[in-house]
Write a structure and sequence with these properties.
Elements lengths: L2 H10 L1 H6 L1 E5 L13 H4 L4 H10 L7 H11 L3 E7 L25 H11 L3 E7 L31 H17 L6 E5 L12 H11 L4 E2 L42 E4 L17 H13 L3 E6 L9 H17 L17 E6 L2 E6 L7 E3 L6 E6 L14 H8 L2 E3 L12 E7 L4
Parallel strand pairs: 1-2, 1-7, 2-3, 3-4, 4-5, 6-7
Antiparallel strand pairs: 8-9, 9-13, 10-12, 11-13
The structure holds alpha-D-glucopyranose.
Alpha-D-glucopyranose binds next to loops.
């Protein structure tokens, strides 16, 4: 990628990096077995045996308007939903296959309703699309690393014409980027071994997508080397760490910060899992979001609706607590990025111009110390209620700030006012 293309990427991803917080939705036939979206591969289920879920699929409680309302209240700025996962089942109305929601009992294009509902509340629209396909007859099965039939002798000598799969996959992507209006994000998943980059005819795919949707942003999972000084065109617009927040954020091989988005589950599965109750707390989620932003990253948080079309109650409760926190503290997240200060002992910093946000995870004892900020703070307030905080009021504080070039700010007595995350807004005389 030439310098020009890196610049184009910066322009394309501007809104995305300001948005910071998105909702991921994994939904499909696998909600019925309810053992996660990898159930076909993990349990080596054949097409015939998996067919029962196609026959049963009838999510009559699917109300995407409710999902959109939930996402809006939760503070999500964009959403990415599975249009097809690895099992090959399409939630959208593809003319290229019969294996789609329109041919199940529910009998309609579930993606159309999703797009309309989220667009209506002003949330940017993303499509997850699996480039892996365990249902298509021309996707390699025997000997593949993940295919459910990878060890099944009957597949050993089966002829596979991979070019037919590529035509199918490109055709479906073209349907997605032409039939649903403006799409903001294309989220491909995923490359492995030699199934990567040009194996997917990725350059051609990208060109086709951009010819229809010039502003769309695309993740890095088609392959290529996203970290290279000059990445391939198809290496994508943002990097997608999964179930991890990179310790030092993400930089390319020249040390330049690059756009990235950590995707995380609320329990331990993406697709609905009936007995996985290992949910993270609202506090962990808020702090994970802060951590991403403090390192210049986004967070894409997953929900896995059940077979009836409902987002699990626990997920809704967590999202609503996080949304409640965000409604009072959004200025410290949206539009913010890393501050040029070392990670403080008590938590994290995020910054937006002259405003520095101190996310206090652990108040410790006594006034809070801000290294390097002596004489730079014009005003300090609690972000949640706007109440003023006084700096350097403690008689002992001054002597230490002189030594370390820092400033102290006292919080009201007791423990932290918000146990999820207490934010102090520091208005500086000038940006750091
Ligand atoms: C993966 C998994 C998958 C999930 C995704 C989310 O690589 O295969 O099931 O959709 O990542 O990041």
């Amino acid at each position: 990628m030439e310098v020009q293309l890196v610049l184009e990427r910066d322009i394309r991803t501007k809104w995305f990096l300001e948005a910071r917080y998105g909702m991921f939705i994994h939904w499909g036939l696998y909600a019925i077995p309810a053992r996660g979206e990898w159930v076909r591969s993990n349990e080596r289920i054949s097409n015939e045996d998996y067919e029962t879920y196609f026959e049963q699929f009838n999510p009559t409680r699917y109300q995407p308007k409710e999902w959109a309302k939930l996402a809006k209240a939760a503070g999500h700025q964009y959403v990415v939903m599975t249009t097809k996962h690895h099992d090959g089942f399409c939630l959208f109305d593809s003319q290229l296959t019969d294996y789609k929601a329109g041919n199940t009992k529910i009998g309609k294009d579930l993606i159309r309703e999703y797009v309309d509902a989220f667009r209506e509340v002003g949330i940017a629209i993303g499509f997850y699309y699996s480039i892996i396909d365990w249902h298509h007859e021309h996707y390699p099965a025997y000997g593949d690393r993940y295919h459910p039939m990878r060890e099944h002798e009957a597949y050993k000598n089966k002829e596979v014409d991979f070019s037919r799969y590529i035509a199918y996959m490109h055709g479906q992507v073209e349907e997605l980027v032409t039939n649903y209006g403006k799409i903001d994000i294309m989220w491909f998943d995923f490359s492995y071994d030699h199934m990567s980059g040009e194996k997917w005819q990725a350059e051609q795919l990208i060109q086709m997508i951009r010819s229809h949707q010039p502003d769309i942003i695309i993740d890095n999972r088609l392959g290529g080397n996203f970290m290279a000084a000059e990445p391939e065109n198809y290496a994508g617009d943002f990097y997608s760490p999964e179930q991890i927040i990179p310790p030092g954020g993400v930089v390319d091989e020249l040390g330049r910060p690059v756009p990235w988005e950590a995707c995380l589950t609320l329990n331990n599965h993406w697709g609905y899992h009936a007995s996985d109750n290992a949910y993270k707390s609202p506090r962990q989620i808020v702090r994970a979001l802060v951590e991403c932003v403090s390192k210049n990253g986004n967070m894409l948080l997953n929900v896995g609706p059940d077979a009836e079309g409902e987002i699990p109650k626990q997920s809704k409760e967590i999202l609503s607590s996080v949304g409640d926190w965000l409604s009072r503290n959004s200025r410290s997240i949206y539009g913010c990025k890393a501050a040029s200060l070392a990670k403080p002992e008590w938590g994290r910093y995020t910054q937006n111009g002259r405003f520095l946000y101190a996310h206090i995870f652990d108040r410790g004892i006594g006034p809070i110390y801000f290294q390097g900020l002596k004489g730079k703070i014009k005003r300090a307030r609690l972000l949640a209620d706007g109440s003023e905080l006084r700096s350097g009021t403690m008689w002992m504080a001054e002597q230490y700030s002189d030594i370390e070039g820092g400033a102290f700010i006292s919080l009201p007595g007791g423990d932290l006012p918000d146990e999820l995350n207490t934010v102090i807004e520091l208005e500086l005389y000038e940006p750091l």
